[in-house]
Amino acid sequence: MKILVPVKRVVDYNVNIRVKADGSGVDLANVKMSMNPFDEISVEEALRLREAGIASEVVAVSIGPKEAQETVRTALAMGADRGIVLEAEGTVEPLAVAKLLKAIVAEEAPGLVILGKQAIDDDCNQTGQMLSALLGWPQGTFASKLVLGDNGIEVTREVDGGLQTVRLSLPAVVTADLRLNEPRYASLPNIMKAKKKPIDLRPAAQYGVDLTPRLMVLKTAEPPVRPAGRRLASVAELVDCLKTEAGVL
Amino acid sequence: MKSSSTSDLLSRFAALVGPGHALVEEADKARYLVEWRDLYRGETPLVLRPANTAEVAAILRLAHETRTAIVPQGGNTGLVGGQVPIPGQHEIVVSLERLDKVRSIDPLGNSMIVEAGMPLASVHAAAEAADRMFPLTLASLGSCQIGGNIATNAGGTAVLAYGNARNLVLGLEVVLADGRIWNGLRQLGKDNAGYDLKQLFIGSEGTLGIITAAALRLRHRPRGVAAAFVSVGSPAAALGLFARAQAAAGFGLTGFELMSGLAMEFALRHIPGARLPTAPAPWYVLIEVSSSLSGSEADATVLDILTGATAAGEALEAAVAQSFTQIDDFWRLRHGMSEVQKHEGGSIKHDVSVPIGDLPAFLEEAMAAVEAAFPGCRPVPFGHMGDGNIHFNVSQPVGGDRQAFLARWNEMNAVVHGVVRKYDGSVAAEHGIGRLKVDLLAEVKPPLDLELMGRLKAAFDPLGILNPGRVIRRP
Question: Which InterPro entries does this entry report, sorted A to Z (chain B) (predicted)?
Answer without folding.
Answer: FAD-bd_oxidored_4_C, FAD-bd_PCMH, FAD-bd_PCMH-like_sf, FAD-bd_PCMH_sub1, FAD-bd_PCMH_sub2, FAD-linked_Oxase-like_C, FAD-oxidored/transferase_4, Oxid_FAD_bind_N
